[in-house]
Amino acid sequence: MGQERTTRSAIPRRSRTTRRHRSRYAAILAFALAVTLAVPGGALAAPAGPAAVADAPSPSAQWDALRPKLAGIKGVWTSQSYPGSVQNTMPDTALLGNGDVGVTSGGSTGVKSFYVSKGNFWSGNPARPAPIGGVTIQGTAPQNNGNLALGATATASSTTDPFAASRAVNGQWGSGYEGWVSAIGKPQWITLDLGSVKSVARYVVRNDNAARPGNAAFNTRNMTFQTSTNGSSWTTVNTVTNNTADVIDRTIAAVQTRYIRLNITEPTQNTTPDSTDNPRARVGQIELYASGGGTTPPAEPFREEQHIVDGSITTSVSMGDTPLSMRTWLAAEKNVLVTSVTSAGTRPVQLQASTFAGAVGGGNASYANSAGVNGPVMWAERATAPGANWVSRGALASTVLGGTGVQPPTVSGPTARTVFTLPAGQTAHLVTAIAGGGRNPVAPRNDAVALVRAENTGSIGTLDTQRVAWWKNYWMRSGVNLNDAALERFYYPAQYFIGASSRQGRTAPGLFGIWTTTDAPQFNGDYHLNYNAQAPFYGVYSSNRPELALPFHELILGYVPEAQRRAKQDLRRVKPDYVDRRFPSGGVPSGVLYPVGIGPFGSTSGSTTDDQYHQQVSNSLFSATQFISYYEYTQDLDFLRTKGYPFLTQVAQFFEHWLERNANGTYTLWGGPHEGTWGRNSSPDIGMLKQVLTAAISGSETLGVDAAERPVWQNILNNLPAQPTTVLGGRTVYSLAETMEGSDTRVIRPGDNTINLEFVQPADQLGVNSDAGRLQVARDTVDAMNSWDQRNSFPKVFTQAARVGYPAQALIDRLKSVLSARTAANLRITDPNHGIEKSGTTEAINSMLVQSDQGVVTLFPAWPATKDASFYQLRQKGAFVVSSSRTAGRVEYADVRSEAGGTLRLKNPWGGGAFRVTDANGDTVPYTTPGGVITIRTTAGQTYHVNPA
What we know:
Blueprint: H1 19-34, E1 38-39, E2 42-43, H2 59-72, E3 74-77, E4 95-97, E5 101-108, E6 111-124, E7 127-139, E8 153-156, E9 180-181, E10 188-207, H3 208-211, E11 222-228, E12 235-240, E13 247-266, H4 273-277, E14 282-289, E15 303-307, E16 312-319, E17 322-330, E18 336-343, E19 349-357, E20 368-374, E21 377-383, E22 393-402, E23 410-412, E24 415-422, E25 427-436, H5 444-453, H6 457-475, E26 479-481, H7 485-501, E27 527-528, H8 550-558, H9 560-569, H10 576-582, E28 597-598, H11 619-634, H12 637-658, E29 660-661, E30 667-668, E31 670-671, E32 678-680, H13 683-703, H14 709-719, E33 725-728, E34 731-734, E35 739-741, H15 772-785, H16 794-803, H17 808-822, H18 842-849, E36 850-853, E37 856-859, E38 869-876, E39 880-887, E40 890-898, E41 902-907, E42 915-919, E43 933-938, E44 943-948
Helix pairs in contact: 11-12, 11-13, 12-13, 13-14, 16-18
C-alpha cells in the first residue's frame, strides 16, 4: 500500500467551412447542448446561442452513437462458480452501485445470490466496513449438479475468523478464494453432515494453491478420508500421503454414509518458514459425488453479463429444470434493488426467495445477525460489534411482486424465506430495500420495511426508467473515441466503477469501493492517505465529473479536528529522535497531521484505522492535491471559500513549522518518501508542498484574505529546493530525495513505486509545456524506473509519463500490456492488494488527449501522430470544457465551453497555419497569438469554436 464522425453542418458566417468540418462541429455542439452540467457549489451553464444548424445531429442521435459502444463493453461469465465473488479485496464478479449501496453478484450452481454492502456500514470497534447480507433466488427442489457436499452442515476442529468451515461447502469456489482456515496447530479436522445417508464414490479437495497461486506451501500434505453413519464412530476409507497437488481427486469404492470427515495430520508442505512455524489447515472446497471418475457433471447452460451502459446485470440460468432469465438493477437515487425473473419454460416452476443478514461463509462472531417477517415482507438486520465507539446497523427488506401462490415468509436464524410459483412465460420481481448504516441508527429494519412496502410494479418501472436516464446522463458528461478497443475496454469500465461507488452527500468509497463481501477486508478496507484513497479521483476532474470527488473532501474535512490535535500532541510518533530534537513539546502550534489510515465519520474515536505515520508527514499533502484539482478544474468560488482554501491553510501552517530554515534562508524538508524511510528533501513532499503553497497564495488573492500570509508562503516557495536528482546509468534522473538515511540509502529504486515522480502527478509541477531539459530528465526517469506493472504505480506512472510527453505509442503499448495481463472478468484491473484506485488511470488517457500546463491547453500532447482519436467535453483547468478530433495527424477543430469566463490559452494545433475563432452564433471572436498560443478573453457560459481556415 501507499505512496479511460459525421458531416459538419454549415452555420451562419462560416461559408468557407468544409462540409466535413461543419458536421464534426455540429455533432459536438449538439452533444454539448444536450447535457446540462451542475457542479455543486457553482452553476455550470450550457452554451448560449441558437440550438442547432442544418444537419446537426439531435441529442438522441448523439446518444445513439455512444450507446452501442458502451453496450459492447461488458463483463461475461459462463460458469456458476462465481470466482472472486467473496474475497477481502474488490470482487471480480458483476457489480452494481449507486454511490451508497454496493451489490456483488454471487451464488452457486442453480442458486443466484446478490451480496449487499453499504458505503457507510462501518464497524467502530474497530473501524472497518462490512457486508450487511444479501438476497437469494433458487429452486425449491435440490439442483441436480451432482455435488453432494454442497450446502452440507460443516463443523471443524478450529477456525480462523472469518474463514468458517461452511466456506468449504458453499459452492463459492473461484480465483483468490479462501475457504475453511483452521487455527494454528495440527492435527485438524473438518466434518460434513449430508443430512441423510448417501452413496459416495468420489471426493475432491481443492487446496489453497488451486485458488491462490503462489501458496503451494499451504496445500494439504497428509490426511485421511473418513466416513460415519452416526457422526461418532469413524472408518478410514482413503489415505493421502505426501500430496503436493493443488487438487486431490480420488475415486473410492462406493460407501453409504451420512457423515464425512477429513482428518488432516499434515496441513502444509513444511517448505517455507510460515508453513512450518504456523501450520493451518486450508481447504478451499470439498466436493462429493455418487459416481467415480470423470469430471464434475456440467451445470445447465448459464450466462451472466454486467452492463456498464445502464448499471444492470442479466443472468440466464436454470432452476428446477426450468430456464429462467433475470435482470437485476439498483435504483440510481433510491436504495432499492430489483431482480426481475422471467420463466422461459413450458410449465410453472416453484422458487424460493430469501433475505439474509451476515457475511457469506461465516463472519465476525461479535456482529449480531437477525431476521423477521412483517406481513409479506422479509427483513434481515445486522449490527456491528459493540464497544466504546459507535455501532452501525444495516437492514434489508424484501418482497415478491408478481408470481402466484406467494407463501407467507418464514424465518430460520438470520434468514427469512418465502416460496412462490412462477408460471411459464411470466415475470416476478424480488424487490429489496436497503436502509441504515452510519453511527448508531435507531431502527433501520423499520425504514427498510417502509421503503419496500411503498413499491409496486408501477413504481419500480418508474425507478427503472430513472436509472437508465441517470446512467445516460452520466455517460454524456464526457467521452473518448480512441480507435483502440483494448484502451476503451479499460477506460469506460473504470469510469463505471468510480461512478457507481462515489456520490455527493454519501460516504467516500474505501480501498475497494463500496463492495465489501467479508468482515475482514484487507487493510481494513479503509482510506490510506499516502495516495490510495486519493487515486480513484485522479481522473474525475478532466473527465468532467468533478462532483464525484466531493465525498473525499468531506472525509478529509471531517477529520480536521483530530488532525489538528495530532499536529500538536502526536507528532513525536512520526520519528521520535527527529521530533525530540526540533520540537521538545512533541508537536507544533498549528496545522494538521494525518495518520496513514482513517475511517469515516470524522475524528470520532475509532475512526483511525491504520494509526501509523511510517515516518511520513505527506498524508495531508496527498489529500490537498484533490482540493486543489477540484477548484482548478471548476473555479467553484464557494468551494474555495468554505472548503478548499481553509484546508490548504491548515496544511501550509503545519509545514511552516516543520520545515528547517537554513542559515542562507533556504529550506530543508525531512520526511519519508516510501513508508518507513527517511530522506532529506523528499521528492513527493517537496513537489506537493510547492503545489499547496502556490494554491494558497492564489486562493488568498482570489478571496481577498490573509494578505499577511502571502509573503510568508511566497518566501518559503522561493526558497524550497529543486526536485532532487541523481545519476543512474549515465543519465540524470529524478530521485526519491537528496539523501536517504536508514538501512536502505538508495535514492532511486528501479522497478518500485514511482514516488519520485509524484511531483509530476498528482502535484502538477512538471508538464508538457515545461522546460525541455527537465522533461527529458523525467522521461529518462520513467525509463529508469521501468515500473509499468508495479502494483502501486498503476494509477500514477502512465499519467506521469503522459504529462511529460513520453513517446506516445510506447506509452500505449506499455499500458495495453498491463491491461492484457491484469483485467478481471468484470473488467477491473487486479492485483492482490488494491481495488477502486485503478480507476484513477483514466487520467492517463485524458492527459494523452489534452492537457493544461502553465495555463495553456494543449491538444493531443501525448497521442501518436498516426493514430486517429477524438474526445468530447474533457474538462481542463480554468473550467474550460474541451472537445476535439484529430484525423491523419491533423486536428480538425477545437470546441471550448468556458464555464467561468477568464482567459483561454490554447496552443495553436496548426502550428503557423491560419485558423478562425467564432462563437455559438458564428460571429467572429477576437484573439491574440503570443508565442503561438491562441489567447481569447472568454465569457462565462459561452462556447468557442476554433477551426483551421
